[in-house]
Amino acid sequence: MKSLKLFIALVVFAGIISCNDKRKPQLEYMPDMYVSIPYDTDDADGLNGEPVNSKPVAGTIPRGGHPAYDIPDTAEGYEKAKTELKNPLEASEANLEKGKELYNIYCISCHGKKGDGNGYLSQAEKFEGIPSYKDREITAGSIYHVIIHGKNLMGSHSGQLTYNERWQIIHYVEQLRADLLK
């Protein structure tokens, strides 16, 4: 009985304390978690008064060892990629097999099993006009450019695929194109 009276007294006391003036700031538990302080590390002051240079130095290669893709998403950029970019990976059986595996994940639903533009989404009439690899003059560079930037209804796949995976898919697409041209 004594503990029940103590419990009721604590509840009443907590209720009275919680009815403070709502216009005054109350005590907050870990206030920096409610309102975080945004830091601009690239600002002149940096972080805590020390400059931080988080931007890469021009001409450097990021971790992973592959240069950044700096060809712009324009018609001129497409033509530049088409003529200048070459596949750095050799067309080995392992690269073709991995390219096929990735093609079946990312490309087959639109471009089809043979690369003829007759994938599931085309058959279901979700997208129309998906080109066949046979109908276009494509190179490894133009395919890479389209994977990076997208083209027409095709969106960019640069976020889903690594540098090597893109080139492996390109090996497989070139093989599909060669089979279509026979």
Characterization of this structure:
The structure is a single chain. By secondary structure, the chain is mainly α. The protein has two domains: about 1-35, no CATH class; about 75-180, Cytochrome c-like domain (Cytochrome Bc1 Complex, Chain D, domain 2, Orthogonal Bundle), CATH 1.10.760.10. About 45% of the residues lie in helices and about 0% in strands. The protein is built from eight helices and no strands. The protein has helices at about 1-20, 30-35, 75-85, 95-105, 110, 120-125, 140-150, 165-180. Helix 3 packs across helix 7. The chain is elongated, with a radius of gyration of 29 Å. The model has no long low-confidence stretch (mean pLDDT about 80). It comes from Polaribacter dokdonensis DSW-5. Keywords: Heme, Iron, Metal-binding. Pfam families: Cytochrome_CBB3.
- Report the count of strand segments: 0
- Total number of distinct structural domains: 2
Mean pLDDT: 82
The multimeric state of the shown protein is single chain
Could you tell me how far the N terminus lies from the C terminus, measured between alpha carbons in angstroms?
A: 94 Å
Query: Residue share in helices?
Result: 40-55%
The CATH superfamily label of the largest domain reads Cytochrome c-like domain
> Which consecutive residue ranges, at least 5 long each, have pLDDT under 50?
none
Number of helices: 8
Structural class of the helices, strands and pairings? Answer: mainly alpha
Query: Judging from the principal axes of the Cα atoms, what is the shape?
Result: elongated
CATH architecture name of the largest domain: Orthogonal Bundle
Keywords: Heme, Iron, Metal-binding
GO molecular function: electron transfer activity; heme binding; metal ion binding
Domain Cytochrome c: 94-177
Protein name: Cytochrome c1
